[in-house]
Design brief:
The protein is of the alpha/beta class. It has one domain: Vaccinia Virus protein VP39 (Rossmann fold, 3-Layer(aba) Sandwich), CATH 3.40.50. 36% of the residues lie in helices and 17% in strands. Strands 1, 2, 3, 4, 5, 6, 7, 8 and 9 form a nine-stranded mixed beta sheet that branches. Helix 3 runs parallel beside helix 4 and helix 6 packs parallel to helix 7. The longest helix has 21 residues. The radius of gyration is 17 Å and the shape is globular. The chain starts with 10 loop residues before the first helix and ends with a strand.
């Protein structure tokens, strides 16, 4: 098994720290605190992204009738993981998680809890292997039936935008009509302070994450039927009634259906 280096900060552990999780080390907390000192709003972005994912899954289960989920670039387990939200509403839901980070793999057991009626599986694969992902997922999911592809905060790690779009297309090509794509990623054009903080972070030698203009995030949904309200800042996507006056942040997302 690949040894996990706890002497340098790790983006998944920093994100876990911002979400209030426990799977991080002092070096990650220090890096996370340094980022929040420059841009305190990053904690809101992390938590709003997770909340959007939950609302998206609830839509997919309750209104889309989806019972199969392929979550690529899973990240560290926190609260309300994909299988927990889906199986709470539809216990028979089947979920395949995909990540190739040894840190995530080490904690994958937390993702493999399941209702007796459903199934969860974990595949140690890279986003850059879409056909292999589909082949592995087919051992758990029936890919002749509608499936929701979840890409939450992962596409910004693909430096080449055209390649990112190609990876999304190849994954969707393996899913049937009636399947869905759920994406949320960091965006440009809403919060200059976030953009400056992230650009500075990318220059530190850490694993970079590239914020993209909203129209480029929208283009991931090309050929799909966007679900209202389309691609918007994540707090504005079907907000819970309790969320009074949600405000835009530099994180955009949406859900689209494959015709």
């Amino acid at each position: 098994m690949t040894e996990i280096d706890t002497s340098v900060p790790h983006s998944a552990r920093i994100w876990n720290y911002w979400l209030g999780g426990k799977d991080n080390y002092p070096v990650d907390e220090a890096a996370g605190d340094a980022y929040t000192a420059v841009f305190p709003g990053i904690v809101t972005i992390a938590r709003s992204s997770r909340a959007f994912l939950g609302r998206g899954i609830r839509y997919l289960v309750n209104e889309g009738g989806v019972r199969q989920f392929l979550d690529v670039g899973t990240g560290l387990p926190t609260v309300d993981n994909t299988h927990e939200v889906a199986q709470r509403l539809a216990p028979e839901s089947r979920i395949v998680y995909v990540d190739n980070d040894p840190l995530v793999l080490a904690h994958a057991r937390a993702l493999l809890t399941s209702t007796p009626e459903g199934v969860t599986a974990y595949e140690d694969l890279s986003l850059y292997e879409p056909e292999t992902i589909l082949e592995a997922a087919s051992r758990t999911l029936d890919l002749s039936r509608p499936t929701a592809l979840i890409l939450s905060g992962i596409l910004g790690h693909v430096a080449d935008y055209d390649r990112a779009r190609e990876l999304v297309r190849r994954l969707l090509d393996g899913l049937p009509s009636g399947s869905y794509l759920c994406v949320n990623d960091g965006s440009r054009g809403t919060d200059p302070d976030y953009e400056n903080a992230q650009d500075s972070y990318n220059e530190t030698g850490a694993v970079p994450y590239f914020l993209r203009p909203v129209d480029k995030i929208e283009a991931f949904f090309e050929g799909l039927e966007l679900i209202e309200p389309g691609v918007v800042s994540v707090p504005l996507w079907r907000p819970d009634p309790a969320d009074q006056e949600p405000r835009p942040i530099g994180q955009h997302g949406g859900v689209g259906r494959k015709p």
